[in-house]
Amino acid sequence: MISDDGCELWTSTTGRGEPILCCHGGPGLWDMFGTLDPGPGFRLIRWDQRGAGRSAPRGPYTIERMVADVDAVREWHGLDRVAVLGHSWGAHLGLLYALAHPERVSALVYVSGVGLGHDWHEEFKRKFERVLGERHRRWAELRAMDRDEPEERELAVLQWTADFVADGGRHAEAMATPWFPINYEANAALGEEMRTVPEPELVEACRSLRVPTLIVDGMADNRPRWAVDSLERALPSVTRVRLPGVGHVPWLEAPDAVRGAVTDFLEQYVRPW
């Protein structure tokens, strides 16, 4: 598809039924929802955000532009309103889209997001280093060097291994297949812009959001789940599902639990039957 500013974006639809527009994590990564099963009666609209994956390598890499791209994907698929599901950075993007266009979002599913504040990073770094253990030395070595493409993939797989409680290597390899270059420019630009928005400003905006929201947390996520508490308190219509013993990518570690939570929630508000 072509966005309103002429950027070519890759998009794909899988399944049949009521649409769910997916926003993948990153920033600077690509769609990894290929194994996400939301249950019968739903279809996934997937896409690669600009600058990454199968989409065109061009900016601008701003939150305003990314929100506009979400709307462009919705419009290109011919939808007036749609349920939006986001993971990690994509959960934040989905929330920002709902805040900008609440009339176009029937429901929001916020999976493994990092909340509205910015003070969770130090705890995350400590947990990440502890989980990697002896492998952290190799991770740091790769981070510090000029990397070729195989070393880029090795670094990503090693880093993503820490996002799981069990079978981390296998799940991380699946996430890295197919492999695309990581867009570090987009990652840095969007990460910095997110840090410029004060938490109280986002809390105030969320208080008036009437879009029903499901928060899904893997309680063994290295990113502290208390960081999402202020979001939960601010939203007028919110359900929170906590999955014990599950890490940052819950549909890979606990697919049945995620499918049940998403289906039960969307049946209340989207009603595909």
TrEMBL record:
- The record lists the membrane-crossing segments as none
GO MF terms held by the record: aminopeptidase activity
Ligase as a keyword of this entry, yes or no, is no
Top-level taxon of origin: Bacteria
**Cellular component GO terms held in the UniProt record:** membrane
Q: Name one GO biological process term.
A: proteolysis
Which keywords does this Swiss-Prot/TrEMBL entry list?
A: Hydrolase
Q: Name one Pfam family in it.
A: Abhydrolase_1
Give every AB hydrolase-1 domain span. 19-250
UniProt family annotation: Belongs to the peptidase S33 family.
Q: What's the protein called, per UniProt? A: Alpha/beta hydrolase
Q: What is the lineage of its organism?
A: Bacteria, Bacillati, Actinomycetota, Actinomycetes, Pseudonocardiales
